[in-house]
TrEMBL record:
Assigned keywords, A-Z: Signal
A Pfam family recorded for this sequence: SBP_bac_3
Signal peptide extent: 1-28
Source organism of the structure: Streptomyces misionensis
CDD domains, alphabetized: PBP2_MidA_like
Taxonomic lineage of the native organism: Bacteria, Bacillati, Actinomycetota, Actinomycetes, Kitasatosporales
PROSITE patterns recorded: PROKAR_LIPOPROTEIN (PS51257)
Protein name: ABC transporter substrate-binding protein
Spans through the membrane: none
Solute-binding protein family 3/N-terminal domain segment(s): 84-321
InterPro entries noted in UniProt: Solute-binding_3/MltF_N
Length: 339
């Protein structure tokens, strides 16, 4: 299995790939953390994809409280009536997962929207704050936040301090022109003879270079290209100079959505676990160790899965290929050597 850099590098790579330029000034002014504007949904209702700036198809979901799950909560959280959710999206955000929406104030994206859905199931009012990646963990450590929803990978190293409730696959993926007939199909040998672009210093680059070495040992070629920025990469794709772009899957999903009505629409050509061949990487809600919150959050996600609301949340953001069958508390994560 290839080695994996700290999750921060992948998140930042995703942010660079998808940042909405108009948001930069607004978010940069917020500093290390900030209170985030919340939605005005009626009780028992969560609008997924509100003010998403085209990253999602807004859908209103009915999500009544499940009293049996509210009873599972730690007494202090149940008495407070709120779920303090922190999202590590400062300074720039990373669409479609977490960023400031088109109204220039509401924290939106797949991650905070799932936090709102979980809070509704638990009968709690979501209280969202936005922070830098580092300050997000400080907030969880200090108790300022109950849980982090921010594309956080489950790792064995992090389990020393945190509990996890998994909710999404941690995948990387291939983006090709919609007219292309090529698909990855989960087999690196299908890359033989192809030219693929990847960003420097990312997890997906490490995976791709390992595949390149394996193919070379078989007498086959895989040409790997690096470009100075996303615009150059996408120009190379539309111009036919590369066959595919290998990137964080949510970024691929976002760009596919953005190009749907353009002269050169793209599509996903397949995904791969960010943890490598031997383990499916998982994204998880992150709570302080032994806080008692991981199980009720996992149970809330499983309720959303069974009710069909989970599938609608993923579909709104074009992330259905990252669905998990069930949420688990502290499932196997990236091993210590790769964390």
């Amino acid at each position: 299995m290839p080695s994996h850099p700290f999750r921060r590098s992948l998140t930042r790579a995703l942010a660079a790939a998808t940042v909405v330029a108009s948001l930069a000034g607004t978010l940069a002014a917020c500093g290390g953390d900030s209170e985030a504007a919340t939605t005005t949904d009626a009780a028992g209702t969560v609008t997924v994809g509100r003010v998403s700036n085209g990253a999602a198809k807004p859908v209103e979901l009915k999500v009544p409280e499940v009293k049996a799950l509210n009873a599972e909560l730690p007494a202090a959280v149940r008495r407070s009536g709120t779920l303090k959710i922190v999202v590590g999206a400062l300074p720039d955000g990373f669409p479609p997962l977490a960023y400031i929406g088109g109204d220039q104030k509401t924290l939106t994206g797949a991650e905070p929207d799932l936090g709102r859905l979980v809070a509704a199931v638990l009968g709690l009012k979501p209280e969202l704050s936005n922070a830098t990646w580092e300050n997000m963990f400080v907030g969880i450590d200090s108790g300022k936040a109950d849980v982090g929803f921010a594309n956080i990978t489950d790792t064995e190293e992090r389990k020393r301090k945190y509990d996890f409730a998994s909710y999404r696959k941690d995948n990387v993926g291939f983006e090709v022109l919609k007219k292309s007939t090529w698909n990855f199909d989960g087999d690196y040998e299908n890359l033989a003879g192809k030219t693929v672009a990847v960003d420097n210093g990312t997890n997906q680059e490490r995976i791709l270079l390992e595949w390149q070495r394996k193919l070379k040992a078989q007498g086959k070629t895989l040409t790997v290209k690096h470009y100075a920025g996303k615009s150059a990469t996408y120009l190379a794709l539309t111009g036919g100079r590369i066959d595919a772009y290998f990137a964080a899957n949510p970024g691929v999903a976002y760009h596919v959505t953005r190009t749907a009505t353009s002269p050169a629409p793209t599509r996903s050509a397949g995904t791969y676990s960010g943890a490598g061949a031997s383990l499916q990487g998982l994204i998880a809600a992150t709570t302080k160790k032994n806080s008692g919150l991981a199980k009720p959050i996992a149970d809330a996600v499983n309720h959303l899965i069974k009710s069909g609301q989970y599938a609608k949340w993923l579909a709104a953001y074009n992330l259905s290929d990252e669905a998990v069958a069930t949420s688990r508390v502290n499932p196997p994560g990236l091993p210590l050597s790769d964390s």
